[in-house]
Amino acid sequence: MDIKTVIFIGPQGSGKGTQIEKLKEVLEARDRRRVVDIQTGRRFRALAATQETFAEDKIAATLNSGILQPDFITTVLWGRAMLDQLDNKSHLLIDGFPRTVGQIPDLDDAFHFFDRTTIDVINLATPEAVVRARMESRARLDDTNDSIEERLRGYREATLPVIEYYRTRPNTRVHDIDGTLSIDEVHTAIVAALALE
Q1: Which residues pair with 91 in a beta bridge?
Q2: 18, 98, 168, 179: which has the fewest C-beta neighbours closer than 10 Å?
Q3: Which residues of the chain have pLDDT under 70?
Q4: Using CA atoms, how far apart are residues 126 and 16, in angstroms rounded to an integer?
Q5: Nearest one of 62, 131, 74, 63 to 100, comparing CA atoms
Q6: Strand partners for 39
Q7: What are the chain's domains?
């Protein structure tokens, strides 16, 4: 099996975290290599929960508003995770970055550094009405009506252009997956798209 580098992109509530966990199980069952799973949303929520520094306090305040966190903090979080966990033999699953076109050059530098030449992008295409309903039902503190609308606006304006960039990037395959399907159906489509059947 080739080493997998997979970026999950989709609006909040599209099921990225769930699908990363399911894909991680498949990779671990079929290959002895380690699977590094970097989800920046979880890292931001962990920082916000700590609230011991100015940065953690500010992240906590802005996280609940739904606005995108500054690129430099996002880069520090995933960069530190890669430095601590990744090598050129491990599979890599990514959620939460790049969220803006401005984050792509740093990630491309990291891919080059870690000898990642082929990238798969899972685009969980999910209508706003569906993700809005999912976020309203999951009872997370940062899922207020205002923050949900802000996240959806941010996704439309900042993240959709990222998908279009990856459609033209060499050695990159974008797999459009219907995010309205059941969890198991989405998982089956992802496994098929990545030729892991």
Answers
A1: 35
A2: 168
A3: none
A4: 11
A5: 74
A6: 95
A7: 5-193 (3.40.50.300)
